[in-house]
Amino acid sequence: MNRYDLAIVGYGPTGMVLAALMGRQGHSVIVFDKYRGLYNLPRAACFDDEIMRTFQKLGIVDAVSSATVVQTDYDWINGEGETLLEVSYDNPARGGWAALYMMYQPHIETVLDQLCKSLPSVEVRQGVAVDGLEVGDEDVLLSGLDKSGARIDARARYVVGADGGAGFVRPALGIGFSDYRFQENWLVCDFRKLRPLPAVPSFRQVCDPVQPVAIVQIGPEHHRFSFMLDPEEAVEQATDHERVWERVSHWLTPEDAILVRVANYVFRSRVTDRWGTRRVMLAGDAAHEMPPFLAQGMCSGMRDAHNLAWKLDLVLTDRADPEILATYQPEREPHVRFITEKAIELGHVQTLRDPAAARERDQRFLALREARREPDKIVYPALSGGLIATGEPYAGEFFVQGRVCAEDGREGLFDDIIGPGPCIVSRRQELLDGVDEDRLGRWLELGGHVVLLSDDAADTGADVEPVVAVVADLDGVYRAWFDVHACEVAVVRPDWYLYGTATDGAGLASLLARLDHALRCAPRSGTPA
Predict the structure, then answer these.
(1) Percentage of the residues of the chain whose pLDDT score is greater than 90
(2) Of 11 and 384, which is predicted with more confidence?
(3) Which residue from 129, 133, 135, 128 is spatially nearest to 172, judged by alpha carbons?
(4) Under a CB-based contact definition with an 8 Å cutoff, are residues 87 and 74 in contact?
(5) What is the per-residue pLDDT for 161?
(6) What angle do CA 379, 383, 388 make, to 5 degrees?
(7) DSSP string spanning 52-112?
(8) What pLDDT is attached to residue 324?
(9) How is the beta sheet containing 203-207 ordered, strand by strand?
(10) Percentage of the chain with pLDDT > 70?
(11) What is the mean pLDDT of residues 82-89?
């Protein structure tokens, strides 16, 4: 029986990203999925700059981009067609990419599938339903049946259940959900466009108490219309194609598009009580399900995968204490709960069915527009616990990415020029000169980079250690970031979240010492994962 570094149950976007990240680091990975092939129908509609940065790390941006559209804005209108709210999206955003991309999910999954299956250390076993899980001291035994009825067994040092809210792994661990008790019944209708339809909104919420509607372009060739269903409406009636065309007749006709999917879908809002055990962890919908009003369900699962991937890499290569895996839930759960609760809040506002309450909402939003009050943009919270320098300014924030120029003249986004891994980024050379040699050696063992920002990477005017990469900040992204944050150096994790910042050499030395200690003797924060 083969023994793997990691076994993943579930081959949706979360499992695919985790397999790809681990496989690119050379770890042996086996993935089980009960379906013979890919789902091949759209579910999620969009992703953000952090996820595109993850695709950048995986080297698939060009392949992914052919099925995406950069979204510049989002509006809400009421039943009378009045605009209640307009949100504009940054391009580029903090991650160096546009803040929002509308996508066609089957294409994204095909690209990820091709990447996973191209990696020599990744084995994908589709058509295998896992039905057994035994957790031992050193590894985990998984067993299942393939479609021919043959028994499949595998041992892995760690297991991640990414098999959805109704999957096998979570209940096998005896873990339940904490339910927000917010669920709604919607009809999701997906169309493939036969011609350009510039008059159809690209991203709109129709806040009509008679019929709340969400309109979303899902990539360049598809569009989605979602309708909130009345409690008494029968599924058979709602999903009837003739009835669907009646619903969309204000925007589409059969001459404009082909109806490719109709689904009755109940949005749920729940988070698991525990995100795993010492050797088995949960990710994506297996750990949390959220309503779609912030379009962050798939993104949240991919963030889970990235958080796990770099920590598992350090553990599997004996560069960190296995207890760092216990920081997974404390870091990810508050982030997920914030998004879930904010999505519920937006859902309540957007889908008011009481006419009087809807009129009151409309008057409030229209008054803000009359006063030229820009809507507040939702900013996802920094990490507030786990493997960060708690108490240090800006610890846990998502770090920016800008365009840089290397000493050899190469220009590009920072991650492409510097490479993956943790990074010390400083705009003052003397801070780097003061790093203890042993501490620097330990940093390099972790796969870390040391980067000096300069106005001119080809002419620093001083001798620089060979381990230090000098880059020019081409668009002033880093200069502006360091000015706003009033610091001189940032210690950045492999998932681009800040371990901490410092203003001088002593502060940098303290951060590196704290991080080294945390990796060697990880704090047991939260529920062991």
Answers:
(1) 87
(2) 11
(3) 133
(4) yes
(5) 98
(6) 145
(7) HHHHHHHT-HHHHHTTEEE--EEEEEETTS-EEEEEE--SS-TTSS-S-EEE-HHHHHHHH
(8) 96
(9) 83-88, 73-78, 203-207, 213-217, 222-228, 184-193, 257-267
(10) 97
(11) 95
Look at strands 468-473 and 403-406 and give their pairing. Answer: antiparallel
CA 405 to CA 479: how far, in whole Å?
14
Detail the DSSP E strand segments found in 90-161: 101-103, 122-126, 128-135, 140-146, 151-161
The answer to whether 34 touches 323, Cβ cutoff 8 Å, is: no
Q: According to DSSP H, which parts of 265-354 are helical?
A: 297-316, 328-350
Helix (H) / strand (E) element for 366: namely helix 355-370
Q: Please tell me whether residue 372 adopts helix, strand or coil conformation.
A: coil
Residue 238 CA to residue 170 CA, distance in Å, equals: 33
pLDDT at 374: 84
3-state helix, strand, coil in the chain (%, to 5): 35, 30, 40
Cβ–Cβ < 8 Å for 403, 478: no
CA distance linking residue 346 with residue 338, whole number of Å: 12
The reported pLDDT for the residue numbered 425 is 98
Strands 128-135 and 140-146, by their bridges, are antiparallel
If we measure between CA atoms, which residue out of 257, 229, 32, 63 comes closest to residue 131?
A: 32
CA distance 227 to 248: 10
Angle at 292 between CA 286 and CA 294, to 5 degrees: 110
> Do residues 295 and 493 lie in contact, with contact meaning Cβ atoms separated by under 8 Å?
no
Q: What is the DSSP letter of 432?
A: H
The pLDDT value recorded for residue 526 is 45
The two beta strands, 449-454 and 177-179, are unpaired
Indicate whether this model's pTM tops 0.90: yes
For residue 314, CA distances in Å to 96, 411, 448, 500 come to 26, 30, 12, 19
Alpha-carbon span 285 to 108, nearest angstrom:
18
Residue 242 three-state SS: helix
Q: Give the pLDDT score at 232.
A: 86
Q: 414: pLDDT confidence band, cut at 50, 70 and 90?
A: very high
What is the tens place of the pLDDT at every residue in 251-295? 999 999 999 999 998 888 999 999 999 999 999 999 999 999 998
Residue with tokens 């800008």: 402
Give me the torsion for CA of 522, 524, 527, 529, rounded to 10°. 20
pLDDT digits (tens, 9 = 90+) for 314-347: 999 999 999 999 999 999 999 999 999 999 999 9
Q: Where are the beta strands (DSSP E) in 183-333?
A: 184-193, 203-207, 213-217, 222-228, 257-267, 270-272, 280-282, 288-289
Tokens for 457, please give them.
């990477």
Mean of the pLDDT values across residues 477-505? 97
